[in-house]
Model the fold of this input.
Amino acid sequence: MNIAVIGLGSMGRRRIRLIQQYNNSFKIIGIDLNKERRDISEAEFGIDTKDSLEEVIKYYDLNCAIICTSPLSHNKLTQISLENNLHVFTELNLVTEGYDENVQLAEAKKKVLFLSSTFLYRAEIKEINRLVKEQDNKLNYTYHIGQYLPDWHPWENYKDFFVGDKRTNGCREIFAIELPWLIEVFGNVKDIIVRKSKISSLNIDYDDNYIVIFEHESGHKGVVAVDIVSRKAVRNLEVFGENIYLSWDGSANGLKMMDIKNKKEENIHLYEKVDQLGQYSQFVVENAYYDEIKSFFDVIAKAIEPIYNFEKDKKILELIDRIEA
Done:
């Protein structure tokens, strides 16, 4: 299989590493306008690189495109890839431009159009989902996700990548990461109450913190605090009801459940081996990214339904639009 990975930043290189881990016989061609990124990828992974998708399509017999560029470029790259009969895997889009057209094009071309939603593949999320679904009673939850924006990519200015743009801002990305699994676990959203503002001195033209109350159709309720101002990177979840108390600090080994009888919190161990890279925080678990890549190739080979798709994501982005409005 011949695969074009478009965008050789940190996410593109992650996907290359994991594809090689999945099947090192696949031929990968990296694409990036930045020569330094191409050189790094050639040296690190032993792959060919080019600066143009059209050139790679012309000279290589491609099967798939993995799109890892900034979100506002995804629509056009997806369209070009589908028109050239490629299966497509795309990272978070954050905007719905081209969604309907590309879904229709993928159906017409009989090609897989696969959208990333990595947290749905986290073992901790799957376990939280199982435990919540076992409960007969209604539950509440509190969830705080925050990290100071300049710390996201310390090697570059936050104005120089997509979170500096109001359309694809940092808080919007956090919501787009977290809401798919929150809705999967607690149910579709019935109502929301939003409080938001800008409290930092960051050079941005959008709100940098949100507190949102979610009422779910299931009867569960939650308070979600999202920000890009917290000087400590945090992901703190509590789920509580009469018969359950769960907590999760976002790390691979940080899911705990209260033993109600013995009044003691106990860790829930879910991994035989945790794959993590030193340059990322404890919240970044490579296992889920690998499982997502595997799922993409399984969808191609076995024609199974992916657990997330563009139709679901369109509803998520419409909900984020409501939150931001």
Notes: The radius of gyration is 20 Å.
